[in-house]
Amino acid sequence: MKPEPQVAISLPLSDFPNLSLDPSRMPRHVAIVMDGNGRWANRRGLSRHEGHRRGKDSVRAVVDAARELGIPYLTLYAFSSENWRRPTTEVSFLMQLFHRYLITETKRLMKRDIRVVALGDTERLPPRVREALAETVEATRENRTMTVALALSYGGRQDIVNAARSIARKVAEGAISPDQIDEQTLARELTTSGLPDPDLLIRTSGELRISNFFLFQLAYTELYFTDTLWPDFREREFLSAIAAYQLRERRFGAISNGSDTRLRAQN
Ligand code: FPP
Fold first, then answer.
1. Is position 30 within any domain?
2. Structural domain count of the chain
3. What is the pLDDT of residues 205-232, one digit of tens each?
4. Considering only CA atoms, which residue is closest to atom 10 of ligand 1?
């Protein structure tokens, strides 16, 4: 019998030897809707802030795990365009948390050769956060091992609207004709231009929604929903999601003839 494929591992992933992954079937881009911080805190009689604080630790764990697995792109949906409607105290706390993360993590990200890019309407962020974000993006821009995209004040519909406006301007200027507009034209105008479409979307906390995340980009993405709340989503849960992804057969609208495994969770 063929031995189970094992990923080349180093700590901390070696703590999970029972989860074997196939290195040739790693997703290229994993996107995560990090949900459930509030419920995690409520269940423990803690403030929602504490849930978010613990959620930050999960961010660190998952970034490190993805890097160890050799996943080149990871997007974290950290703050949606709708999250501005939350109570001011919570929004302020989250902004403070993002600021702290950017200030304290940049050194670690540099050490790990991780590039950070920002997605969304970052102009809406408080100046302090915007500046810290710009500094992290600039400091890490030459890093190549992995890209972490932080979606902050991001909305999928707004992303498409902005792209449509930009294309309309180009048409009005005569730079392109309407007939030349294709999927690539639109993809290039989205905030995710330059990133591959996600292969895998993970949403934590049991909610089965997309919540105005990557509406265009998720066309053929494999969806993985888990009841685990984000602050409890660490290396083991991430590996389980990747293992589940590797069992999926990706057909991209084509058909499977049973013997053709070429499309099975491959890029
Ligand atoms: C959703 O949980 C979570 C958020 C809106 C914030 C995400 C923020 C973090 C994970 C903190 C750290 C992030 C970075 C990038 C440093 P929720 O509050 O909606 O939870 P609930 O649905 O249980 O109320």
1. yes
2. 1
3. 999 999 999 999 999 999 999 999 999 9
4. 55
